[in-house]
From TrEMBL, chain A:
Membrane topology: Multi-pass membrane protein
Every ABC transmembrane type-1 domain range: 92-308
Chief location bin: membrane
CDD domains: TM_PBP2
UniProt source species: Paenibacillus glucanolyticus
One of the protein's GO biological processes: transmembrane transport
Protein name: Protein lplB
Taxonomy of the source species: Bacteria, Bacillati, Bacillota, Bacilli, Bacillales
Record keywords: Membrane, Transmembrane, Transmembrane helix, Transport
Automatic annotation (TrEMBL), chain B:
Positions of region (Disordered): 30-54
Native source organism of the sequence: Paenibacillus glucanolyticus
Keyword presence, Protein biosynthesis: no
Record protein name field: Sugar ABC transporter substrate-binding protein
SUPFAM superfamilies found in the cross-reference section: Periplasmic binding protein-like II
This protein's UniProt keywords: Signal
Length: 321, 565
């Protein structure tokens, strides 16, 4: 994949750092390209920029049946409600906490699994492991949380296993303790997504030049050495790009898992921004509050994305923008 | 060669499939169209129902806001309606999401003649006001709704748009089925201790404790004393019991005394209940997992037959009970008990179903001849037609014994549970939403076959017959006191808190606090209960409960002024 991209670049050959002046001639030459990009531009304008107009709702007491002109403008009232609520800091902490756990666990497990899969030489086993590990991705969260809740029940498989192994004497009620909750959410995410997440790394690994492995082998590199010095650097660019994108989603800790697994006993650890906004925004018919929550999340996302991108640039890594 | 055969095969499959879709589409289309013109001649007959006037056939398009199945084209009840009243129905059932469908209908003002009730449609002005038309053209309907007339009026503009389908009662209220809230107990527990009459909470937990001690396991699994379900919106298992224990009906989060509502979550009579639960938990009677389980796990436990009791609404665990019956564990099914704190309090769990507002049919602004439709509905509310719609045709679907009581043979009973049979022989799609008489007809027969006492008894299982005999009851509903007339403003839980208002935010917060602190208090060591409870009430003290109570009280007053007869 990298090769073909590089080739294209060579053909067009724009001078780095120097903008090509836009002339009629250039437009004429590229008119097919411009025509082709029109539908996509329209799509983006229509579905990504026009809806931003809806942000105005956050500054109104929005009522669905009224016209825009009839809405009452209230300034930052809804942001105030959001930020001053007793629960806000708690849900923010939970969101960021679970999100970070998901991020770290997600990356580490996916990369490790990809590296391990890469080492399997028998195609049959490789495919089997891959298929089994990514199948849960296609289950919806409602199913997964059902499985998780059942496995964690007092007579569920987890407690049975730990009791048989003599690790614990009494079954533990995993879902009744706040301190376990983040871990359970992180674990469920890993179980559901690990196989799926490896796919992109496996693709990146496949594009590494085999000559590098041969060279390393001639230099006497062991299997682990090759992993460390050839495979990992080979997919570093992919990892960084994915990391930057994930950091942009830091406030997306998910909603279904916490909503479906949470209960009164762990609510202090389970409630995320999304649940909060659902309860006090959408469920109350208070769309303005929900929009304010959405704006907050978007602003944080864009900021984090730019920050991560800037850091990557400073570190001389591949970046998104 | 192989490749070629394959592609041929694929092509022909695709062709076949598309052909079948096209044909299928044609088929059903024809079916619908053909049903109407065919029977024109028979409809010309004169009938007694219309005072000897000629019956003019007309078609009524109906939107049903629920998923459903088209009746068969030769359905005998619809045929009878067509023959005698001239109306033939053209149903459209909901497919997919109701709000989406309504959005499309409203956007295009594309309404059929009749539509089931929905506040979105009312707000869009899709229904015509009916009160004057009923006064003028529909004497039977007027009589039917007389006592409920003011309640049916839309609170916003005072018009009647929708004819409620349930909640209008007549005569003795026959009921053999209780679907509401109660403390439920396994029949086996009562049987074990010689069918005692259980009235108070203490007696109830006493029985459960004794039974659990005697039988620590049921079918090999540990016995569970008591379950409290509090999952997502199914939160009444934890929240609602206190109001019933002091003898009040289900008003949701408030207790209404003399037209004044108060939140009971932090009151002493609520504390009494949760303290009892706390003690019972210390004795190991309450399921350890009860607050972490989801609804499926709850149903699974109940279905296993190991749960001795719980506070719940019957319909909520109906599936578990059905499963127990299928497994042949009749003794593990449940009896609802209307428990109170002390002997002197009269129980008020069972209530008279309130008027089912915003449900039933309305006539749309697009209906060409609303008077004709209304006259048809007016004819159908008469007792003779109600019998046809509810019981069926005499001799075919039910029999009348010497005492004039309606009964069914086993064959007829079985037919009534057969969905396919019903599509051809019952007008359920229409009748479910149509105005109907509930209770009993003037000849004393129940309006609903399932509520006819003789019919109910005949359908009972051996175990239940024996069980009810021991108590001297006709049905399980007899465990409850006869419901008194409802207060005018009852029930308070149907009051709209108004989207986005402070009352609604407070209500959400209150639920959040209860969900968080009540389990803590119940699971605390008995010595720590006091502090857990005061923490809970202190948190409630911080939110503006008054805003919530004020809204309820304001609406109660509004109902008292406007709904009183």
């Amino acid at each position: 994949m990298d090769e073909t991209l590089a080739k294209k670049r060579a053909v067009r050959n724009p001078k780095r750092g120097k903008k090509q002046p836009i002339t009629w001639n250039l437009i004429k030459n590229q008119k097919q390209l411009i025509m082709m990009s029109v539908p996509l531009m329209l799509y983006i304008i229509l579905f990504a920029y026009v809806p931003v107009w809806g942000w105005t709702m956050a500054f109104q007491d929005y009522k669905p049946a009224k016209d825009f002109g009839e809405q009452a403008w209230v300034g930052f009232k809804h942001f105030k409600f959001l930020f001053t609520d007793d629960n806000f800091l708690r849900v923010l902490r939970n969101t960021v906490g679970m999100s970070l756990i998901n991020l770290v666990l997600g990356f580490v497990t996916a990369i490790i699994l990809a590296l391990l899969l890469n080492e399997i030489k028998k195609v049959f086993w490789k495919r089997t492991v891959q298929t089994i590990s990514y199948l849960p991705h296609f289950l919806s969260w409602i199913i997964v949380t059902g499985i998780v809740a059942t496995s964690l029940a007092s007579d569920g498989i987890i407690n049975d296993l730990l009791m048989k192994l003599q690790v614990i004497k009494e079954p533990i009620l995993w879902l009744s303790e706040g301190k376990y909750f983040w871990g359970i959410v992180g674990g469920s995410h890993v179980w559901k997504e690990v196989g799926w997440n490896t796919i992109i790394y496996l693709a990146a690994i496949a594009s590494i030049d085999p000559a590098l492995y041969e060279a390393a082998e001639i230099d006497g590199a062991s299997r682990y050495r090759k992993m460390l010095h050839v495979t990992l650097p080979g997919i570093k660019a992919t990892i960084v790009i994915l990391l930057i994108m994930s950091i942009g989603h830091i406030l997306e800790a998910g909603f279904e898992v916490q909503y479906l697994l949470g209960n009164g006993l762990v609510v202090d650890w389970a409630e995320t921004i999304d649940i909060f906004v659902l309860k006090y925004g959408i469920a109350q018919g208070n769309y303005s509050m929900a929009t304010a929550g959405g704006i907050f999340k978007t602003v944080v996302s864009v900021t984090m994305l730019l920050l991560a991108n800037w850091t990557a640039k400073r570190l001389g890594e591949e970046r998104l923008l | 060669m192989g490749g070629k055969t394959k592609s041929w095969l694929r092509l022909s499959t695709v062709l076949l499939l598309s052909l079948s879709v096209v044909l299928g589409g044609c088929g059903s289309g024809n079916g619908n169209n053909a049903a109407t013109p065919e029977k024109k001649d028979s409809a010309e007959q004169t009938t007694p129902g219309t005072d000897g006037n000629k019956v003019e056939p007309f078609e009524v398009s109906v939107f049903i806001g629920e998923a459903g199945q088209q009746p068969t084209p030769d359905n005998k009840i619809y045929k009878k309606i067509k023959d005698e009243l001239g109306a033939s129905f053209n149903f459209e059932f909901l497919a997919g999401d109701i709000n989406q469908k309504l959005g499309v209908m409203i956007a295009g003002s594309d309404y059929p003649d009749m539509m089931t009730g929905n506040t979105k449609l009312t707000a869009a002005g899709a229904y015509i006001p009916l009160e004057d038309l009923i006064e003028e053209h529909a004497p039977n309907l007027k009589k039917h709704y007389e006592d409920y007339w003011n309640m049916m009026k839309d609170p916003n503009d005072g018009h009647i748009y929708i004819l409620p389908n349930y909640g209008v009662f007549n005569g003795k209220l026959n009921s053999s089925w209780y679907s509401g809230p109660a403390f439920w107990i396994q029949k086996a527990v009562l049987e074990e201790f010689g069918y005692p009459k259980v009235k108070t909470l203490d007696e109830y937990f006493d029985l459960i404790g004794k039974y659990k001690e005697k039988y620590p396991t049921i079918d090999g699994s540990p016995t569970i004393g008591f379950e409290i379900l509090n999952y997502d919106w199914r939160n009444w298992g934890l929240f609602n019991a206190p109001q019933h224990l002091i003898g009040h009906p289900n008003d949701g989060g408030v207790v209404v005394k003399d037209g004044v509502a108060e939140v009971f979550a932090n009151k002493d009579y609520a504390k009494q209940y949760y303290q009892k639960l706390n003690e019972m938990n210390a004795q190991g009677l309450i399921d350890k997992e009860t607050f972490v389980q989801n609804y499926d796990q709850y149903l699974a436990k109940l279905s296993s037959g190991t749960v001795l009791g719980m506070f719940d609404q019957h319909w909520n665990f109906q599936n578990a009970e059905n499963s127990l019956i299928t497994q042949g564990k009749d003794e593990r099914t449940y009896v609802g008990l209307p428990l109170v704190y002390d002997e002197n309090t009269k129980d008020h769990y069972r209530d008279r179903a309130p008027l089912n507002l915003n449900n039933g049919f309305g006539i749309s602004v697009n209906a060409k001849d609303p008077v004709k439709i209304l006259k048809m509905l007016d004819a159908l509310i008469t007792e003779d037609w109600q019998k046809v719609l509810s019981w069926g045709i005499e001799g075919e679907d039910y029999i009348v014994n010497e005492e004039g009581r309606f009964m069914k043979t086993q064959e007829q009973r079985d037919a009534f549970t057969d969905g396919t049979w019903k599509l051809a022989n019952k007008a359920d799609a229409f009748f479910g939403f149509a105005p109907k008489i509930e209770g009993s007809f003037s000849d004393g027969n129940a309006t609903d076959a399932a509520a006819q006492p003789e019919e109910y008894k005949a359908g009972l299982k051996e175990y239940d017959k024996k069980f009810l005999e021991a108590y001297g009851f006709d049905s399980y509903v007899d465990f409850f006191s006869e419901p008194p007339e409802n207060e005018v403003a009852y029930p308070a839980w149907t009051i709209d808190l108004v989207e986005g208002s402070e009352a609604k935010v407070v209500n959400t917060k209150l639920n959040d606090l209860s969900t968080k602190f009540l389990p803590k208090a119940i699971l605390a060591k008995p010595a720590d209960f006091e502090s857990a409870w005061s923490e809970y009430t202190a948190e409630i003290g911080k939110i503006n409960i008054k805003a919530y109570e004020d809204r309820i009280n304001e609406q109660i007053q509004w109902r008292i002024t406007n709904w009183s007869k």
